[in-house]
Design goal:
Largest sheet: 5 strands, antiparallel
CATH superfamily of the largest domain: Ribosomal protein S6/Translation elongation factor EF1B
Number of strands: 5
Number of helices: 4
Strand content: 15-25%
Helix content: 55-70%
Number of domains: 2
CATH class of the largest domain: Alpha Beta
Order of helices and strands: HHEEEHEEH
Oligomer: single chain
Length: about 190
């Protein structure tokens, strides 16, 4: 081997050593870093997918909450947590005298009856009018937002086509523990 060939072989050996060292220290280290970052990307993609699923669940829950709020509002109109006697009297008077053209001769509150989750608040009432006027009045009471039942109905014929009617209107009040201080129906069923 001549000197020139030896130099070429030495240069090739040095180049192979440098390429091997570059591969060992630079490329191989970066492939490990790439593999580590790929794992992190996979984990982050999984977390992102879970977050998207949770976002969809949250949107569904928000819609459910809005629906429940509307249902609660409707239920509170039907079964309020306060007597609201002034509003009730105004509604009954308007429905009776103005819209149904009957004469209300008596309207007396009776004792409240405590039930487990609600109260019954009855009112004794006497009205006077034609059969059609009385039926119209009862229909309008049935169409109120609030739950009101007609009980103990007694009809007595009067002059001409008019009837004298005695009845008991029963309203219902939700026994809301936050309003009543946590007490729920301790005198159940008493008057």
């Amino acid at each position: 081997m001549n000197k020139q060939t030896t130099n070429i072989v030495v240069l090739i050996a040095i180049a192979v050593i440098f390429i091997g060292a570059f591969f060992m220290f630079s490329y191989k280290g970066k492939t490990a870093k790439i593999a580590e970052l790929s794992d992190k990307i996979g984990q982050l993609d999984k977390k992102l997918q879970e977050a998207e699923e949770n976002k969809q669940k949250l949107q569904l829950l928000k819609r459910e909450i809005e629906d429940l709020k509307l249902a609660l509002k409707y239920a509170r109109e039907k079964l309020p947590s306060e007597e609201e006697i002034t509003l009730l009297l105004d509604n009954i008077n308007k429905l009776g005298t103005i819209e149904s053209n009957i004469s209300i001769t008596s309207f007396k509150p009776l004792n409240k009856i405590t039930r487990e989750i609600y109260y019954e608040k009855p009112y004794s009432m006497k009205i006077f009018g034609s059969f059609h006027q009385i039926a119209t009045f009862f229909n309008k009471i049935g169409n109120l937002n609030r739950i009101i039942n007609i009980d103990k109905l007694s009809i007595s014929p009067s002059k001409g086509n008019f009837e004298a009617v005695s009845l008991e209107l029963k309203t219902y009040i939700y026994n809301d523990p936050s309003v009543t201080g946590g007490k729920s129906g301790s005198n159940r069923g008493t008057r």
